[in-house]
Amino acid sequence: MNPETESAATTHDTRAPSSFKRTIAFAATGLLAAGTVSAGAWWGISSVAAADTTDAPTAAAGNTVIQTQLDQLVDRGFPAALASLTHPDGSHEDFVSGVGNVETGEDVPVDGEVRIGSNTKMFTAVTVLQLVEQGSVELDAPIEKYLPGLLHGEGIDGANITVRQLLQHTSGLPEYTDALAVDFKQMQHSYKSPRDLMDMALAQPALFSPGERWEYSNTNYIVLGLLVEKVTQRPLGEEITRRIIEPLGLQHTYFPAQGEQKIRGEHPSGYHMEADLEQFDVTELDPSWAWAAGEIIASPSDLNEFNRAVVDGRLLTEVSMAEMQKTVPSDETLFPGAQYGLGLERYPLSCGGEIWGHGGDIQGYETRNGVTADGTAFTIAVTSLPAAIGDPANEELVLENYKSVTQALDTVLCSQ
After folding, report:
1. pLDDT of residue 182
2. Is the alpha carbon torsion for 172, 325, 238, 380 positive or negative?
3. d(Cα 383, Cα 250) in Å, to the nearest integer?
4. Burial level of 373, CB count in 10 A (0-12/13-18/19+)?
């Protein structure tokens, strides 16, 4: 490991898949990526400054394997890596490696806030399923019933697309982010409304007939965000906050306000790279183009606690959870046997068993996470997209970079 990097651990109580080639181009241009490559309640403990490796209580915490995995990710080229392991009793351990800011050499904030990208889809899906529980939405009703006239285009008809198909990425809607495949520096601070995103999507033909197969499309969740707002007559971020973030006491999780570009709490800086291979800081950006598909900011321990609450009945009834966990085969590039439910993914572990979670990519940050049957949850975050720490044209290298993060997730959870 680079001697200039630092690492620390602290303990707190408390898809018919699209082609990987298309995904590489997608990630290399710095667009919102899928939860897979194709595409802790906060317990009132104050943040602990990162310590030097020699002082980090990793051995005492009993999770040197986590520290090793983070150090290896930094050695690979990620500026920083941070992670949180939440135990079945709700206590959690937090780990960091690397530098929080490559220009200043600042420490990585322990359990710092990061942009969680497509993990946002789990929040949106839970909100929709709560509306189903309340009788305001029907899973198998056509979206045309709630958003008449919205989904029409070449091969696209909202009367033939159900709410369930939107949640599960089986609608066939085209990917709006394809229209954003430009130099990210040109749009880093640009605002895009949900309707702007829908215009980008609907200018393209359908990918396939509804229900024909699975293919990840962020457009599905933009439509679901519009559904939430139409039914509740309130902003999506407000509904997610009221229904999920506040009840769980997630003090380091929030849906950015319109126009908000900074990260509010302690956070590591995020970095990106374009075709010129020059790394630049993207910590501040306008995430409006991610919206219901990927706008939320959270700390690793908060994301763990949310994941635990998704599957343990704190947010949804048993009936809703059964629906959410009805899966179809998805992209197996990184996790052989991966399955997609309603905004929730199931991944088999190499050691046996399975985890539920999602994952997310957005310029500057990638997160991977999962919760096991006994309530053990782990989230790992790096401060650059895997396609932005080497030559993005080198597909083999980019794939290896992506796999390094998911393999770290698998290694840690198999070690617990």
Report:
1. 75
2. negative
3. 22
4. exposed
